[in-house]
Automatic annotation (TrEMBL):
It comes from the Bacteria. InterPro entries: DUF4145 (IPR025285). It holds the Pfam family DUF4145. This is DUF4145 domain-containing protein. It comes from Pseudomonas wuhanensis. Residues 120-208 form the DUF4145 domain.
């Protein structure tokens, strides 16, 4: 997915520069001489750019809102100046993306990876390997908890402490905190070979709970 976004950013940057190079000078009695580009080409590029920003940054992101504002017509302005404004926003988003500063992209990638790992856990459970399934689901959970701590300025530590700190910071409520504690208990028992402390049904519920937690967290 990240490779696809990288490719699209590069494609749209190339199209942007090509569009910029088509500038011609026009004249009117009111504005005198002014630069201009094809309005339909600008509209087409803007639609494609906003689609990418929506997917990468989010529809309500600062990048998207600034791009929309930059598109708006202004008094005594021309569409070449509009192009320069949206170009600045687009290149800023591209730089943030390439620098790894967009949480939305990270979440998309993680959702893809974690979804694959949870599918693997489900397959192992079906095949009779409940302990291995529990360990994999537990790793997905703990990685997500660590990322939440990073995003909220909370120090990393043992899972129980990070879980408590996140609940205290109102990142999620006490009910979710208790669910995470229960999931961690199954993971720990599986990792230590204490198979008498859980059953396949517990692991199935654990995987389902982790999936729901990801659906809430990685959005």
């Amino acid at each position: 997915m990240t490779k696809l976004f990288e490719k699209r950013f590069s494609e749209l940057e190339s199209q942007l520069l090509a569009l910029e190079a088509t500038k011609t000078m026009k004249h009117s009695e009111m504005m005198g001489s002014f630069p201009s580009i094809d309005a339909n080409s600008l509209l087409s590029w803007g639609v494609k750019a906003k689609s990418l920003l929506s997917n990468v940054c989010g529809e309500k992101s600062h990048h998207m809102m600034t791009f929309i504002e930059a598109e708006k017509p202004r008094s005594y302005s021309n569409n070449f100046e509009t192009l320069q404004r949206v170009k600045a926003v687009f290149l800023a988003a591209k730089e943030d993306y390439e620098g790894g500063y967009l949480n939305t992209v990270r979440n998309l990638v993680q959702a893809e990876v974690f979804g694959s790992e949870l599918e693997q856990a489900g397959e192992l459970l079906t095949a009779g390997y409940a302990s291995a399934a529990a360990v994999i689901a537990g790793v997905v959970l703990e990685t997500t908890i660590r990322n939440l701590c990073t995003d909220n300025g909370i120090d990393h530590g043992k899972l129980d402490k990070m879980n408590a700190d996140l609940a205290k910071a109102n990142v999620y409520n006490s009910i979710q905190q208790k669910r995470i504690t229960a999931i961690a208990g199954i993971r720990n028992a599986a990792a230590h070979g204490d198979v008498e402390k859980f059953n396949p049904g517990d692991v199935k519920g654990m995987i389902d709970d982790v999936e729901r937690f990801l659906a809430t967290t990685l959005q």
